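TASK: fixed-backbone design
INPUT:
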């Protein structure tokens, strides 16, 4: 009895999801759902600041690669290998090499992690510099910290008056 193993398929960069979708359609067409059981584009949540707004995105962990859990036969190899966007299997020589179980476990665990919470780098009354947004290069004093939201309220001097502004942790740095 042949076993299910995880294999890594090399794709054109940026075509990982297209390959995964095309491969799922081909499984249906060829009736191979028993031999190819999972197709995974490993991604991770990441927090980015774009135009002053915080967004959570899913970033590919291994650009140009898709993981496929399958029983390796000539038929399954051919179906995967001949999928549009696939350039080949990862492995020594002409034979695909299955991923070790501990590596698969580590990758799967990593993809399930939520976006990292912000590290608390500031203290109340500490002087900080604004590094992003309309108040870039202003200096201010930390007034409040909201760890849950990743926000910090900073008092900056605008026209000689202390003005509170709320910023993301990523928008300020320590002096």
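OUTPUT:
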């Amino acid at each position: 009895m042949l076993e299910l193993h995880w294999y890594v398929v090399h794709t054109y960069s940026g075509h990982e999801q297209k390959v995964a979708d095309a491969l799922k359609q081909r499984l249906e067409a060829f009736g191979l759902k028993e031999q190819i059981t999972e197709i995974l584009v490993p991604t991770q949540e990441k927090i980015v600041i774009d135009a002053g707004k915080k967004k959570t995105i899913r970033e590919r962990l291994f650009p140009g690669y898709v993981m496929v859990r399958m029983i390796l036969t000539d038929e399954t190899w051919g179906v995967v290998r001949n999928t549009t966007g696939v350039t080949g299997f990862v492995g020594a020589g002409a034979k695909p090499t299955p991923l070790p179980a501990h590596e698969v476990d580590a990758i799967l665990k990593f993809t399930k992690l939520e976006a990292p919470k912000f590290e608390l780098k500031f203290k109340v009354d500490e002087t900080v510099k604004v590094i992003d947004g309309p108040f870039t290069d202003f200096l201010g004093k930390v007034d409040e910290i909201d760890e849950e939201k990743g926000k910090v309220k900073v008092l900056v001097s605008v026209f000689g008056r202390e003005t509170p502004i709320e910023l993301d942790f990523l928008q300020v740095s320590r002096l």
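COMMENT: Residues 16 and 26 are 15 Å apart (CA to CA).
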